Amino acid sequence: MARFIVLDGVDGCGKSTQAALLVAELARVSAGAPLHLREPGSTAAGEQIRALVLSREHDLDPGVELLLFAAARRQMLRELVAPALAAGRDVVCERFHPSSFAYQASAGGLPEAAVLELLDRWAGAPAPDAVILLEVDPREAGSRRGAPLDRIEDKGLEFQRRVARGYQRYRELRPQTHVVDGRGDVEQVAARVRRVVFDGA
After folding, report:
1. Number of C-alpha atoms within 13 angstroms, CB side, residue 116?
2. What sign does the dihedral 181-182-187-188 (CA atoms) show?
3. Could you tell me which of 186, 167, 158 has the C-alpha nearest to residue 6?
4. Which of 37, 48, 95, 115 is least enclosed by beta carbons within 10 angstroms?
């Protein structure tokens, strides 16, 4: 059975690196070529929404951000994720519902229940088979990331700390979510991710 796997966490936690390594491992052990996606993005509409949301030209309310992210996610699920799973291809996606909850609810001040209800109703299917949060201290993640590259990264360390608390809160509300220690070298973290994906640990 093809699986839909999400990697999430604060900016600079190592999502992109670990997603690429996981895709390579899945390609080695699976019959079909895995699909590697990023959020928002991956579709033509999603990439345009990504550019709009991250641009320093716009000062968007958290509610506007949430609606745009949900729209990009719904398009990605319909256009890419569902067909890939139906064809027997695993899907690995960088970011999903935990990001919207952490950034727009916890850090942005939107009501938790309303955010989750909107995401589940309008961008909830196909649902991920595994959601993995890479846990890294926001200060360390910021040093990995370097200079801010977009409007959201511009918000600074204290904002990222609120985001990190948001991921912890998401885990409380969705206990099936896996938390992986993102500290250590790349291969150490990759081994922890593989244990979740292949062993359910």
Report:
1. 12
2. negative
3. 167
4. 48
Asked whether residue 32 carries a pLDDT value surpassing 80, the answer given is yes
Task: Report the CATH architecture of 4-199.
Answer: 3-Layer(aba) Sandwich (3.40)
pTM for the structure as a whole: 0.95
The DSSP symbol for 12 reads T
- Domain ranges across the chain: 4-199
**Residue 201 in this model has a pLDDT that exceeds 70:** no
What token pair was written down for 40?
């928002």
Amino acid identity, position 58: H
Show the beta-strand stretches assigned E in 1-152. Answer: 4-8, 35-38, 91-94, 130-135
Say which amino acid occupies 98. Answer: P
Q: Single out the residue of 133, 68, 61, 137 nearest to residue 98, CA to CA.
A: 133
Q: Give per-residue pLDDT as tens, 124-159.
A: 999 999 999 999 999 999 888 878 888 998 999 999
Nearest residue to 3 via CA among 124, 181, 190, 131: 131
For residues 95 and 73, what is the distance between their CA atoms, to the nearest angstrom?
A: 10
